[in-house]
Predict the 3D structure of the following.
Amino acid sequence: MGGQRDLRRISEDSGDMRALPWGTQPPGDPPQEVTLARSLEERARLRTRLPTPDECRRLRVAALIEAQEMAQELGINKATLWKWESGVSSPTGPTRDRYAELLENLAKAVA
């Protein structure tokens, strides 16, 4: 097969079995790389927009949100939020992305 493997997929629209070269997409499917790139771009955008710890606290307080309420929304404990707002530690992974999104929305709301 010249180094290419066949990838068998079932077409959702017709239900037939087709053999496609490894790494190709069935007609109509968005390339996986494009979807991944959009996800990475969005995460990078949110990461660059995380305010300073003082600004994070200011936004929360200006929006009249208690620390416990914010922590519950993020699925963390109040002590972790305190560490973030004090600059002792920083959020990571999906929690950081969610925190950045929440802060961005708070900034719009209190503007």
